[in-house]
Write a structure and sequence with these properties.
Layout (H helix, E strand, L loop, with lengths): L8 E5 L4 H12 L3 E6 L2 H13 L9 E5 L5 H10 L5 E4 L14 H29 L2 E6 L12 H17 L9 E8 L5 H14 L3 H10 L9 H11 L11 E4 L9
Parallel strand pairs: 1-2, 1-4, 2-3, 4-5, 5-6, 6-7
């Protein structure tokens, strides 16, 4: 299927690896020019090289990169100094650490809100009016399956991402919806990423089990009996960014292998 977005420009955050890279790769394969951003310059350049070497990439497709922390004012300024207008924006930032809410002070909460709520809002604010003026825009916020099924030790993430979810529910249904702009959230479950591996290693150390044993136990809790792959997450992202998804707006799209047990 031709997604109808070849030649568009996309900003993809946290794109040096994992789910962000999966989204960037899927968009590049559709002929979308991308500007990818991440904090680690070395990993970012490796991602650029991988995207440019992808045999499925149309040869005219551009790949730019900015090594910056998108959660800071300076990081966002560096991105928009490189390119101002985008047709597609994929917001993505690493989740805050797990723990007991009794141990989190105001600084911890502000940091979580900055990364997982306020930064996406700032990126939306910076790009949505230009999208509306051009008559096309797609904004995808990578949040978490924990928005639908909160996890007790992930209170910082639950709170910040739920705040973003509430904001998006309103702004997605504002005037921009009639101007060709959609805003959706993409909620990953357990995907095979470095963050998941680190979480499982921590669980293994705590339980005294091997990492392999913890992984197998976790897989068995998922109806699909496996972890998701970044490439398939990217494919979902690319479709939501496509010309065919113009009637999908203000939604929380869950990709978790059937793990969430609810009907809605």
């Amino acid at each position: 299927m031709d997604l109808g977005i070849a030649g568009k420009w996309a900003l993809v955050c946290g794109a040096s690896k994992g789910l962000g890279f999966g989204c960037a790769q899927a968009l590049v394969r559709e002929g979308v020019n991308v500007l990818i951003v991440a904090r680690g310059a070395e990993a970012l350049q490796a991602a650029v090289a991988a995207l440019l070497a992808d045999a499925a990439r149309p040869t005219a497709t551009e790949v730019l990169a900015v090594a910056a922390d998108i959660t800071t004012v300076e990081g966002r300024a560096a991105v928009f100094a490189q390119r101002r207008d985008f047709d597609i924006v994929v917001t993505n930032a690493g989740g805050p650490p797990p723990g007991d809410f009794r141990d989190w002070d105001r600084t911890a909460w502000i940091k979580a809100l900055d990364a997982n709520m306020l930064t996406p809002i700032e990126l939306i604010k910076a790009t949505v009016d230009g999208m509306a003026a051009r008559g096309f825009g797609r904004i995808i916020n990578i949040t978490s399956g924990a928005v639908k099924a909160p996890i007790d030790i992930l209170g910082l993430s639950n709170g910040a991402r739920s705040g973003l979810t509430g904001f998006v529910a309103g702004v997605a249904r504002s005037k921009v919806a009639s101007q060709g702009v959609t805003i959706n959230n993409l909620l990953p479950g357990a995907f095979d990423t470095d963050r998941l591996k680190a979480t499982l290693q921590g669980a293994a150390q705590k339980s005294g089990q091997t990492v392999e044993a913890v992984m197998e136990t976790r897989k068995k809790t998922i109806p699909a009996q496996r972890f998701g792959q970044p490439a398939e997450f990217g494919a979902i992202c690319a479709f939501l960014c496509s010309a065919h998804a113009g009637f999908v707006n203000g939604q929380n799209v869950l990709a978790d292998g059937g793990n969430f047990p609810g009907s809605f």
